[in-house]
Amino acid sequence: MKAIHRLWLFALTALAMGSCSTNRAAPGREVFDEQTGNTLTVVSKPLVFARDRNDVAAYARDYATAVAVEVDHSGTLQDYLLVYRWSTVDKRMLPGEDPGAGTLRLIGAGRELTLQPLDSLPVDVAVNRSLHLPGHDAAVARAYAVDVDILRFIAHSDTLTLELPEETLDTPFRIWEDGRGALEQFMRQTAAP
């Protein structure tokens, strides 16, 4: 009888410990990119920003999904922020795919950061589903080179907003799905300078 009580106690303890661990952000996923031979570390949960588009339709929104990725290219590490711009309205609400456009402004904690997009994506987001590409039929993807200070700013800003100043609508995006805890875990896991 004591063995059964111990077994139950062990099972309840394991269950309690498991439920506690689900409150913490999961570590980023490591993925081997077969096309480039690079190893990618991808944040486990992205940050999703949204802005209402009640001017177009009820319950319509524009979104910007931000995904932190570290690329290990033969021991050279570089961090990137992939940003997918998509909308529930229709494709006409998306920005153009001009690689020169896409200035990104992050505002939080009394500070403003402006990032310029890279000319090309460092990874093929259409092939690699682990990069949190939205399950939407159209999304414009851009990449920004970042460092640990920029990622820390994003993770620790309480009132973070995202702006895309080159779009015709200048309304900022606000956090819709909060992935800052996962970003914090990603920074602990990665080692880029």
What does this structure look like?
There is one protein chain. By secondary structure, this protein is of the alpha+beta class. The chain has one domain. The chain is 20% helix and 33% strand. The chain has helices at residues 2-21, 148-156, 180-189; strands at residues 29-32, 39-42, 47-52, 61-73, 76-87, 104-108, 111-115, 140-146, 161-163, 173-177. Strands 1, 2, 3, 4, 5, 6, 7, 8, 9 and 10 form a ten-stranded antiparallel β-sheet that branches. A hairpin with a 6-residue loop joins strand 1 (29-32) and strand 2 (39-42). Helix 2 packs antiparallel against helix 3. The radius of gyration is 19 Å and the shape is globular. Mean pLDDT is 81; it is low at 3-24.
Structural class: alpha+beta
Distance from first to last alpha carbon: 57 Å
Q: How would you characterize the largest beta sheet?
A: 10 strands, antiparallel
Number of domains: 1
Compressed to H and E, one letter per element, the order equals HEEEEEEEEHEEH
| Radius of gyration from the alpha-carbon trace, in angstroms | 19 Å
**How many distinct helices?**
3
Q: Helicity level, as a percent range?
A: 10-25%
Overall geometry: globular
Strand content: 25-35%
Mean pLDDT: 81
The strand count comes to 10
Q: Which ranges are low-confidence, i.e. pLDDT below 50, for 5 or more consecutive residues?
A: 3-24
